[in-house]
Amino acid sequence: MATLIDMPKLSDTMTVGTLVKWLKNEGDAVANGDMIAEVETDKATMEVECFDDGVLIKQYCKEGQEVPVGGAIAAVGEKGEEAPEVDNSDAGGDAEDEKKEDDGGDEKEAGKDDEAKSSAKESKPDEDKVKGASDKKSDDTPAEVPAPATTDDGERIKASPVARKIAAEKGIDLATLKGSGPGGRILKEDVLNAEPAPAAAEGGGSGAGKAAAAEPAKPVATLEELDLPVSNMRKSIAKALVSSKSNAPHFYLQIEVDGAPLAALRKELNAKLAELPKEHGGTKFTVNDLTLKAAAEAVRRVPAINRSWEGDTIKQHANVHLAFGVAIDDGLVTPVIRAAETKGLREIGAEAKVLIKKARDKKLAPDEMSGSTLTVTNLGMFGISDFYGIINPNNAAILSIGATIKKPVVNENDEIVIGQTMKIGLSGDHRTIDGAVGAQYLQALKEILETPALMLV
User: Fold this and answer.
1) Which of the residues are catalytic?
2) Residues 425, 428: Cα–Cα separation, whole Å
3) 398 vs 122, 334, 425, CA distance in Å?
4) Residue 161: which H helix or E strand, with range?
5) How far is CA 170 from CA 36, 72, 194, 198, 199, in A?
6) Angle at the Cα of 388 from the Cα atoms of 363 and 373, rounded to 5 degrees
7) Domain chopping of the chain, boundaries
8) pTM of the model
């Protein structure tokens, strides 16, 4: 009897998955443990494992198709066996519902138009009454409004009554204007901001005057115009950050650090270790490695920063599960270094490199991106000197590391010298911590970065 292989739930927030690539084709022999497909979740691209021996007798979806969690993607059975029928209609349910709503909406609008026309015809007032009513003008009633203008093709121009009146007074051809109102409707401001056409200003209304006032030619496109589909990962990022920004009251702090000692330590370490083979301890440290280690070390001094908002309680964590931002083509992911405060600089650097590679290959497992207690994001490599990140739910804070910039500074002898400064921002969740906690943490971090030997002991 055939066995169905379903779309697995690979993260807590996952509701659908996109089948990116088939690794096995219909008719291929498969065995327990074989990977049959690659699936994009809301966080990464994962492989789907087969748990039966047999033949892949049916693929229920195409590459690029979304399938809801639990929906069948394939059937495995004996050669020649008929695959069972499945219903994955939920995968396109949202799109179908939207289409039905749109169709229904169009029908309703059409119905409203017919009803309005019928009602207008039945309730058309007596012409004499209308004429009598029009003769009774109050003091604030505007003067007679010109009849609706039309284009050369006979198409009615959308314009407000006031706009038509002012255009007639100023001799402005409405056909030459572009409206800023709903549906391109010309408003009063559009007419007031327009210059009269030369022919109209002289009292003429010839076609030549209209041509002279015609809109300029549209510019030639020099950049590629794209409509990009929103991937599951992008949807997940958007949902999480909107939730964080909406629910967590952010406050912002910044501190300036002397970056020269950190730069000197990195240069010295790399000079001694970069050329060595790995088996002899060879490695190369980045500024990111050093700041990650310093951020974890500073939590030892101010453990209150390592908290999370749990609704009814505030939890202070026993370990620093340190997340850091990695930019990939489809967004930003935040892999996590577990218990970072217990690991040395070499171990943190090595683990960060592995996680960065997996992130860029879209091979991060869900548990490698969840459960963080503090996040560090670094844009210094792009020359950004200072910025503030959005807090990673449910962390109490996120650190923003800027570039090390050379600029004039005043030293301890009150002398103006060339210094290397680094700005570090902190975005804090005011539900969980207060400004004093954030300030104390930044002070501790500053001391470690300016005396980087402290992180090595």
Assistant:
1) 430
2) 10
3) 67, 12, 8
4) helix 161-170
5) 72, 68, 10, 11, 12
6) 50
7) 3-87, 142-214, 232-456
8) 0.61
- The CATH class that applies to domain 3-87 reads mainly beta
Contact of 38 with 48, CB cutoff 8 Å:
yes
In which band, very low, low, confident or very high, does the pLDDT at 203 lie, cut at 50, 70 and 90?
very low
Alpha helices by DSSP H, listed for 248-388, are 260-273, 287-301, 345-360
What SS3 class is residue 126? coil
Q: What are phi and psi of 20, to 5 degrees?
A: -80, -45
Cβ-proximal residues to 361 (8 Å cutoff; 6+ apart), any chain: none
Contact present, 61 and 91 (Cβ < 8 Å) = yes
Strands (E), 325-396: 326-328, 331-333, 336-337, 374-378
Q: What is the pLDDT of residues 59-91, one digit of tens each?
A: 999 888 888 888 889 999 888 888 888 877 554
Class of domain 232-456 as given by CATH: alpha beta
Tokens of 217: 């030619």
- Pair 181, 187: CB distance under 8 Å: yes
Is 60 exceeded by the pLDDT of residue 134? Answer: no
Please report where in the chains the tokens 């218990």 appear, as a residue: 339
The rounded distance, in Å, linking the Cα atoms of 133 and 82 is 79
CA atoms of 423 and 380, how far apart (whole Å): 10
For 19, the 3-state DSSP assignment is: strand
Within its chain, how far is the Cα of 100 from the centroid? 28
Q: Smallest Cα–Cα separation from 164: which of 176, 173, 153?
A: 173
Residues 6 or more apart whose Cβ sits within 8 Å of residue 295: 322, 340, 374, 376, 399, 445
